[in-house]
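Reopening: structure tokens for the zinc ion complex, inputs below.
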Amino acid sequence: MSYIATCRAGLAALQAKKEVNILAIESSCDETAAAVIQNGRKILSSAVFTQIPLHAVYGGVVPEIASRAHVDAVDRMVDYALNEADMKLRDVDAIGVTYGPGLVGALLTGVSCAKALAYATDKPLIPVNHIEGHICANYLTHPELTPPFICLVASGGHSHILMVEDYGVYRLLGCTQDDAAGEAFDKAARVLHLPYPGGPLLDKLAQQGNPGAVKLPTAHTPGAYDFSFSGLKTAFINAVHTMEQRGETARPEDLAASFQHAVVKALLDKTMLAALDHHVTKLALAGGVSANSGLRAAFEQACQKAGITLYLPQLKLCGDNAAMIGSAAYYRLMRGEIADLSLNAKPALRLV
Ligand code: KG4
Ligand code: ZN
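Re-run output (same inputs, fresh job):
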């Protein structure tokens, strides 16, 4: 029997198994990660190798360096994840892997590794969308969370408001028209001379600053639930330069707090509007920016006021990791979504 025929023949038995353990691999950007996840909800192990120090000197991710570093680290991360879960490769039931969106060379490393492991062991290969992974980080943090709910996904490359209608069923309500929220944070941080990735450092500075120090514009977008951050970013850069030219000294803490306040307000206002219009009772945040302290606090307050239950991913699951990919892979496996060995990296893969 061919590899895929063997996997399809064993699928029903696997779906009926009480405990399904998935080895997941993530390599879409600058983190090489592997994890073992049980039934989409329980982290048996999770290993993340961050390449940030390799890229920081260049002020951003260098794709070629990322690909090489993934090749170097991926086997070690898989071994580490299996050891930590006290398992051998033969003990896992399937292999999940991020196949997009992301950097093509980076994605290819994870996809090639996953294909080799799946083929060598005759275990199903499960293709996972990275954005779906971010949403599923909430299933790991909150075992009681089930669809439907609204999710704001804010990362370095994406800013979406999605209606999660069911596992794997998403409806796009709004998205950014230009820059992603994380990208805007990183660009504003650069103006404040913070090293890459500046988002977390800007967040730290902002905690000591006055959010009303610099007035920044609110963007108008065609869709009620859409975002636009490029005008805000330009207004911020201009405000900082004008101050410098006038010889005015603004506290970096105040500049950071003002910028963060403007981004958080946009994300909060649009997402809450979508939640209220759609009469949802549950709202989740996902993606790297969901680690932002101002964003978390603002949503906590607004959701409490609106009587909506808020789900925040654990801080260590906000950024890129393989645990979230293992969760998404489980629900795909339950729907029978497995791939054959022609699976390829899809850098511009969409969720909806
Ligand atoms: O989800 P993620 O790890 O990678 C992508 O899929 O893009 O998101 C990374 C982004 C970066 O832009 C980073 O600066 C931003 O998330 N980020 C933050 C914070 N932590 C990470 N932005 C603002 N505040 C934070 N605390
Ligand atoms: Zn990500």
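Residues 252-277 form the longest helix (26 residues). The two ends are 35 Å apart (CA to CA). Marking as resolved unless the reporter disagrees.
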